[in-house]
TrEMBL record:
Family to which the UniProt record says this protein belongs: Belongs to the eukaryotic GSH synthase family.
Lineage start: Eukaryota, Fungi, Dikarya, Ascomycota, Pezizomycotina
Catalyses which reaction(s): gamma-L-glutamyl-L-cysteine + glycine + ATP = glutathione + ADP + phosphate + H(+)
Cofactor binding notes: Binds 1 Mg(2+) ion per subunit.
Subunit structure as annotated in this protein's UniProt entry: Homodimer.
NCBIfam families: glut_syn_euk (TIGR01986)
Record organism: Epicoccum nigrum (Soil fungus)
EC number per UniProt: 6.3.2.3
Classification via InterPro entries: Glutathione_synthase, Glutathione_synthase_a-hlx, Glutathione_synthase_C_euk, Glutathione_synthase_N_euk, GSH-S_sub-bd_sf, GSH_synth_subst-bd, PreATP-grasp_dom_sf
Pathway participation: Sulfur metabolism; glutathione biosynthesis; glutathione from L-cysteine and L-glutamate: step 2/2
Descriptive protein name: Glutathione synthetase
SUPFAM superfamilies on file: Glutathione synthetase ATP-binding domain-like, PreATP-grasp domain
Residues that bind Mg(2+): 151, 153, 397
Length: 508
């Protein structure tokens, strides 16, 4: 299908563009404009919004891969909730990183500090997203496309709100007859997949809220969204907040991470009390903290921000995610799981049939330490002829942190060898070539693209070590999908980081 999507005449393009820019604003498929696009002096009150980067057409995606990704999400939820409950195992991972990664070290110290006074909440919530690309292995006798996992996100998995909107927008354009008739055999109602991510992620937060139980201090209950400030991707989060209230009757508030200590307090029994600045006479009991900040060292500007994290972690509120769950999302964990013939996957997923389905989605990943595999990887990474097949990743989230292909050897050359184990080396997944058109800041870019499927998952579990009871999973469900699409000239795919666009799947 190399002629998909078709070229548009100037009139067709204008028509779609007008529809798209109005529909997106009318339905909150939007972001706050980048300062490079609208200067602060032009919008001093911060009232402007613009269409989020989106694709004009839904991208083609193999149906079998899509269905497989969604159907293994529950197993991935189970895997990562089991890792998050296995402190000893995680400690082994963290010990390899603490000397080379200050951020991981700080997170671990914060966990230990909470442990000293004692965790008081045994429930833990994960709103996860497992990211994949389609991989075709031409050397294989049957080069059927399969999914390979890019990474597994355990904190601040974003775009669930916008994803539901972009699939609805593509459907609107189809129903309106905006797409050229030559696409009618491809863009069909049953091929377009509506992402249920907004509702499902809100359902997850509502499940945490409900499981928390009654107020301990006769206050109204709320969920707290701990956010960055400023946040351009605010509408993505707003969709979840609105669904939480409208569909589940759960009130939530937004709290910039840097204001945590100013507006929250701990009761003597560690109940987290939020007193909103707009109504200081009313305070709320927080059932669930949903972190949309705190995943990057940039969020911890001053020492007080680490105090704030500790304060939240000590509280009785359910954390989404807890520190241990956040650490389970380290790229190092993914690398250790992907080590061939390792016993780790079996430790967490005893069912061989389930484990083998996940195993099929692992791409080769190597450590850069002094183990035999690490030494081999060091050779591959430092040789300019082989490094072009790899990406080098630190233990970071949020995009823009990786080193790609031929940039790896010079990067490592400048980095003291003692720091190398902070990184993992991953084989590049090479998805089949596709085309699409992306609208960003009102400008249309057309050409070759690379798509990344994200599958959301919700998991709520009880960590037995806190309450002395058996640990158990209380909720586990797949929670919709995200398709992100970037120009094939860009290695990075983050939408918020300015590289990609939100998209939806047209199954083929
Ligand atoms: P982050 O947690 O910062 O999002 P990722 O591991 O998702 O880190 O890497 C960022 C981007 O880099 C991905 O969205 C993807 O576009 C690209 N990328 C990462 N790993 C691979 C890989 N193995 N093959 C191809 N592209 C990759
Ligand atoms: Mg990530
Ligand atoms: Mg990513």
């Amino acid at each position: 299908m190399t002629d998909y999507p078709p070229e548009l005449s100037a009139e067709e393009q204008n028509f779609i563009f007008t529809e798209l820019k109005d529909w997106s604003i009318a339905h909150g498929l939007a972001v706050r404009p980048a300062p490079s696009f609208v200067q602060q002096s032009q919008d001093p009150a911060g009232v402007l919004a613009t269409t989020a980067p989106v694709t004009i057409f839904p991208s083609l995606f193999p149906r079998r891969c899509f269905e497989e990704g969604l159907s293994i999400q529950k197993a991935y939820n189970e895997l990562y909730s089991a890792i998050a409950r296995d402190e000893d195992w995680l400690q082994g991972i963290v010990e390899e990183l603490v000397h080379v990664d200050d951020f991981v070290a700080k997170l671990w110290q914060t966990h230990l500090a909470v442990k000293k006074t004692g965790y008081v909440q045994g429930l833990s919530l994960g709103l996860f997203r497992s990211d994949y690309m389609v991989h075709e292995d031409p050397s294989h006798s049957n080069p059927a496309p399969g999914l390979k996992q890019v990474e597994f996100n355990t904190i601040a998995s974003s775009f669930g709100g916008l994803s539901s909107q972009v699939s609805a927008m593509h459907r609107y354009l189809l129903n309106l007859g905006a797409y050229p008739s030559s696409t009618s055999a491809i863009i069909k109602a049953d091929a377009l997949k509506q992402s249920q991510s907004t509702l499902q992620l809100a359902k997850g937060l509502a499940a945490g809220h409900k499981a928390y139980g009654e107020s301990r201090c006769k206050r109204s209950l709320c969920v707290l969204f701990v956010v960055q400030d400023p946040e351009r991707n605010v509408f993505d989060q707003r969709h979840l907040e609105y669904a939480l209230l409208e569909e589940y009757g759960v009130r939530s508030f937004r709290l910039p991470f840097g204001k945590t200590l100013a507006y929250t307090a701990l009761d003597e029994d560690q109940t987290l009390i939020y007193t909103p600045p707009h109504s200081p006479s009313i305070s709320y009991e927080v059932t669930t903290i949903y972190f949309r900040a705190g995943y990057s060292p940039d969020d911890y500007v001053k020492e007080e921000d680490w105090e704030a994290r500790l304060h939240l972690e000590k509280s009785r509120a359910i954390k989404c995610p807890s520190i241990l769950t956040q650490l389970a999302g380290c790229k190092k964990v993914q690398q250790v799981l992907a080590t061939p013939h390792s016993p780790h996957l079996k430790r967490f997923l005893p069912d061989d049939a389930v484990a083998s389905r996940l195993l099929k989605t692992f791409a080769p990943i190597y450590p850069l330490d002094k183990s035999d595999a690490g030494k081999e990887a060091r050779k591959l990474a430092t040789d300019p002829s082989s490094s072009t097949r790899y990406v080098l990743k630190p233990q970071r989230e949020g995009g823009g942190n990786n080193i790609y292909r031929k940039a790896i050897p010079p990067f490592l050359q400048k980095l003291p060898e003692t720091q190398w184990p902070a990184y993992i080396l991953m084989e590049m997944i090479e998805p089949p070539p596709l085309k699409n058109a992306i609208i960003r800041n009102g400008v249309l870019e057309r050409g070759g693209v690379i798509c990344e499927l994200g599958v959301y998952g919700v998991c709520l579990w009880r960590d037995g070590s806190v309450s002395g009871e058996e640990g158990e999973i209380l909720e586990n469900f797949e929670a919709g999908y995200l398709l992100r699409t970037k120009g094939d000239q860009s290695e990075e795919g983050g939408v918020a980081a300015g590289f990609g666009a939100v998209d939806s799947c047209c199954l083929v």
